[in-house]
Write a structure and sequence with these properties.
The complex is a heterodimer of chains A (about 500) and B (about 450). Chain A is α/β, with parallel strands linked by helices. Chain A has 21 helices and 13 strands. The longest helix of chain B is centred in the middle third of the chain and has 21 residues. Classes of the chains: A alpha/beta (about 500), B alpha/beta (about 450).
């Protein structure tokens, strides 16, 4: 069965497509093994703390497209993350040399009478407002729990207005309750892009490589230029015209398959753009493998070997010195699935111990169905086994893991989770820029940052002496997975 | 009028979650979709002065993370699981179950589930805050009223001079912690026993239990909190005083304190002594800054435009007009006050002082607002006092800009207060600091 059904605005969730789970406790090797054999099962928790939803993921990616607009068809609380994405937009614009501007986001502002009588009039108004205000090249309408439960027919509004206004208007099914795995929201955004924006290639540009990213600094262009390729960073900070021509590129690479699985596989399926299947480009071994796979795809084997040799040589001395500094330190990682595997790999490459990792969810496979991209398997094979939990951002579980392990440094990728390490007195580093540790130079940057974090922990020490944790003494004595149902 | 909202300055009724978190050791339990609580946290707390998770906020909030199954088959059993777990895991004095759109739209009987626990002696209440019901201001009132109805008992006796304060809304007002503390210090200064209810040093749940024994309730805002005071009057027969102007600076603060003192029959000698001392402090520094005001006047903004809720907007407008002789431009009131309070608000702005009035526009949509901000006014740059959203419009008209209203995304806010004598000095420092930083 094909992956992308462009006839339908809806798509299946990660649970349905990939068998993704949000709870697990055990060894990385066990998780990898169960993923491979298809025996992985979720263990629902009875007690939970709040998590995140698909709509944030979708709005994030779509609102960073520079000449599109996003209409959030929801009550106003669902716009709670607008200021976050606005800051991400302005911050990233500066990083990429663009003029900072406010994000093009509106809420249709559903209220009680809309819940009873329907909100399609408001949706139409919001789409027209977005069109008049921003003169966008495309409009994405993100659905919400409220719009779905009240049975709004968003498609009929978007289709009618698309015809009238003459720009693509796409429904994005990212309702919060539909999936336990909020990264389904990325897929929903990409599904809308594949359906409505990407056009068949008129002329192929084999030297162009699509790079699926978030908002991090462009560390790809310099690397790719050295091997005669051009990095095309998508979809944040790109425009609709550039996204419409993703089909022309020679290949698609990812820095994190948790983010890009659906788009990469979809571009290959619909437009024949080969997806480079490799572990993510973090640490020497991951980066080498990733570049070699890219070289094979685009027949740049010789250039890639030269690049690898040059980059290894360029960082060798500094890396050796850093490894000396960081030797014997223990780290703990908390991050979204694949990026978590990457950060654990980076710590190991820096000569540190990794006492464990907690990853928000786990995809036992990706949409490309290719084990070559299995970052967890890569972690286990390359660096040895490590205890992991799939924690769905449950802070109460994380606290008990950290209290037990007491790592020297806590590395986090996701807002809202870093603070709990700090309150325990653990030097904590939030990876805001997902490219910070990427490739060869990233290894050095990251290493220096870790060294800084552990070098002067006075802030954390004082914080821990005065911070109160909202957990009972009973809970602090329990094992982290207490509220997960027993494995069958 | 546009129903579309661009660049929101308030969120939905689930915003009441942040009012729960402002009560020391109170813990919200969100019965809703997986993302609701985090979005509210992001908008009201993090990207609003970077107020943070605090004791049990952010990712520590217990929640049901309702999924498809709970929508189809109902989520009551799932809520019970999460309450059971929360009572074991979370160390709190009061639990407040808040519903999101999902639970309220599918018709979960949350009230009954929660009352079963209450009957067993668990300190737990429920507020129906499904986001489609309204905005954060209503959410705050729903939470407070739920606690009043489901948690408080009538008092044995009334404590003379004890006053409950209902004023700025926690987290929605970025400066709430400092402002509430400042209100406490002012009212204690004239001899009242002050019950503040929100903030880490407010006494937590024990301060809430004192509510019924108050001599009176003070509503210190144009309209928010009136329904709370009415509820308390109805339930405990406590009278209330509604004073609409949050006082900033000496003129307003002295006027405010004299009104309260008269209402509460406080001895005038102590009140006068307190006011004289504080006014002396305030005007000492205004006197020192007089050189600055005289000599830099050529480029200081004369005209101000507030883009903020009715509480801040009225307070800041009166301060700038009466204390600094500034001229009001059109004022944008962003909290969508209920219709019955709008004429009264217009009247307040029509009489900022004997000679000065301001036109007000009610809107919470930034495009509607920014279209009406075009001219410089006598060719001098205007001062825009609003939120982080308003940097671009300030730049467009060549004006100055200070964020004091949600989202304060360009400042880190700790316990800074703009209320009272000291608060007036801080606001002057911040306004002219923002002006001077542009040179």
């Amino acid at each position: 069965m094909p992956l992308v059904n462009i006839a339908n605005s809806n798509l299946s969730t990660r649970e349905q497509r990939l068998g993704s789970i949000v709870s697990f406790e055990g060894l990385a090797s066990e998780l990898a093994e169960q993923s491979r054999t298809g025996s992985l099962q979720d263990r629902p928790r009875t007690f939970t703390q709040v998590s995140s939803c698909a709509s944030s993921c979708a709005i994030c990616l779509l609102s960073l497209i520079q000449d599109a607009a996003v209409v959030n068809h929801a009550p106003l609380g669902c716009a709670g993350d607008f200021s976050m994405f606005n800051l991400v937009n302005r911050y990233g614009q500066v990083k990429r040399g663009l003029t900072p501007t406010n994000a093009r986001l509106v809420s249709s502002n559903l209220n009680e009478s809309d819940a009873i009588f329907g909100g399609s009039v408001k949706l139409e108004q919001a789409i027209r407002d977005a069109f008049d205000r921003f003169h966008p090249k495309a409009i994405f309408v993100t659905a919400s729990c409220a719009s779905a439960i009240t049975g709004e027919d968003i498609d009929s509004v978007t289709e009618q207005l698309e015809e009238e206004l003459g720009i693509p208007i796409a429904t994005v099914h990212c309702e919060g309750f539909r999936s336990k795995v909020w990264t389904t929201g990325f897929d929903a955004a990409y599904h809308a892009i594949l359906r409505k924006i990407v056009r068949p290639a008129v002329q192929k540009r084999p030297e162009v490589v699509n790079v699926i990213t978030f908002w991090g600094e462009d560390v790809f262009s310099e690397l790719f230029n050295k091997i005669g390729l051009e990095a095309n960073l998508i979809v944040p900070f790109a425009d609709i015209d550039r996204i419409s021509r993703l089909s022309e590129s020679g290949a698609t690479v990812q820095m994190c398959s948790t983010l890009g699985t659906y788009l990469a596989a979809g571009l290959e399926e619909l437009h024949g753009v080969p997806e480079v299947k490799a572990p993510p480009p973090y640490g020497l071994s991951g980066t080498d493998a990733w570049l070699r796979a890219l070289g094979r795809t685009l027949h740049k084997e010789r250039e890639v070997e030269q690049l690898i040799a040059d980059e290894h040589a360029a960082i060798a001395d500094e890396l050796e010195e850093l490894r000396g500094q960081l030797k014997g330190l223990t780290g703990y990682v908390a991050a979204g699935s694949v990026h978590g595997h990457s950060l654990a790999a980076v710590l190991r490459e820096l000569g540190m111990n990794v006492a464990g990792g907690c990853f928000w969810h786990h995809d036992p496979k990706f949409d490309n169905q290719d084990p070559a991209a299995d970052s967890l398997e890569h972690l286990v094979k390359q660096y040895g086994d490590v205890p992991v939990s799939i924690c769905n951002k449950q802070a109460y579980e994380l606290i008990n893991q950290l209290r037990r392990i007491q790592p020297d440094v806590f590395v986090v990728r996701h807002p809202g989770m870093a603070v709990w390490g700090g309150k325990l007195g653990i030097p904590t580093f939030l990876v805001e820029d997902e490219h910070f540790a990427l490739a060869y130079r990233g290894l050095l940057r990251f290493g220096h940052k870790i060294a800084e974090a552990v070098n002067n922990p006075s802030f954390y020490r004082h914080l821990a002496q005065h911070a109160r944790l909202p957990y009972t003494d009973w809970w602090k004595q329990q094992s982290a997975g207490t509220f997960m149902e027993a494995a069958r | 009028m546009s129903t579309t909202v661009e660049q929101p300055r308030q969120f939905c009724t689930l915003g009441g979650q942040q009012s729960v978190l402002a009560i020391d050791r109170a813990i919200p339990i969100v019965h809703g979709g997986p993302g609701c609580s985090g979005k509210i946290f992001s908008g009201m707390s993090f990207f609003n002065g970077f107020q943070g998770s605090g004791y049990a906020g952010g990712n520590a909030v217990p929640g049901t993370n309702s999924c498809e199954k709970d929508i189809v088959f109902g989520g009551e059993q799932r809520l019970r699981e999460v309450i059971d777990g929360a009572l074991k895991v979370m160390d709190g004095d009061l639990f407040v179950v808040l519903t999101g759109c999902t639970a309220d739209l599918v018709g979960d009987d949350t009230a009954t589930v929660v009352s079963e626990y209450r009957e067993r002696g668990v300190p737990i209440v429920h507020a129906s805050t499904g986001g489609f019901k309204g905005y954060s201001y209503l959410g705050h009132e729903l939470v407070v009223e739920a606690i009043i109805d489901q948690f408080l008992e009538p008092a044995d006796e009334i404590v003379p001079n004890l006053v409950n304060v209902w004023s700025v809304i926690p987290y929605q007002d970025t400066f709430w912690a400092g402002n509430l503390k400042a209100i406490r210090e002012l009212l204690e200064g004239i001899g009242l026993d002050v019950n503040i209810l929100f903030g880490h040093d407010s006494g937590g749940v024990s301060s809430w239990k004192r509510i019924p024994s108050a001599a009176f309730n003070l509503v210190l805002a144009p309209w928010t909190g009136i329904s709370i005071a009415k509820k308390l009057q109805q339930r405990f027969q406590t009278p209330f005083l509604h004073y609409p102007v949050l006082p900033i600076g000496a003129v307003e603060t002295s006027r405010f304190l004299r009104t309260i003192a008269e209402y509460a029959h406080l001895p005038t000698a102590r009140v006068d002594e307190f006011i004289v001392r504080r006014e002396d402090h305030f005007y000492h520094y205004l006197d020192r800054a007089a050189d600055f005001f005289m000599e830099m006047r050529w480029d200081l903004p004369a005209r101000f435009i507030n883009i903020s809720d009715s509480i801040l907007n009225l307070a800041v407008s009166r301060f700038l007009v009466n204390e600094l002789s500034m001229q009001p431009g059109r004022q944008f009131v962003t909290d969508e006050p209920p219709e019955q309070y709008r004429d009264e608000l217009r009247a307040h702005f029509a009489t900022l002082n004997e000679k000065v009035s301001a036109e007000i526009v009610f809107s919470n949509d930034s495009d509607t607002i920014s279209r009406q901000i075009n001219d410089k006014g006598h060719d001098l740059p205007s001062l825009i006092i609003g939120s982080g959203w308003d940097r671009d419009v300030a730049k467009r008209i060549g004006g100055y800009h200070l964020s004091i209203a949600l989202p304060v995304s360009d400042r880190l806010v700790l316990d800074r207060a703009y209320v009272g004598y000291e608060g007036g000095l801080r606001l002057i420092e911040d306004i002219y600091g923002a002006v001077l930083a542009t040179y």
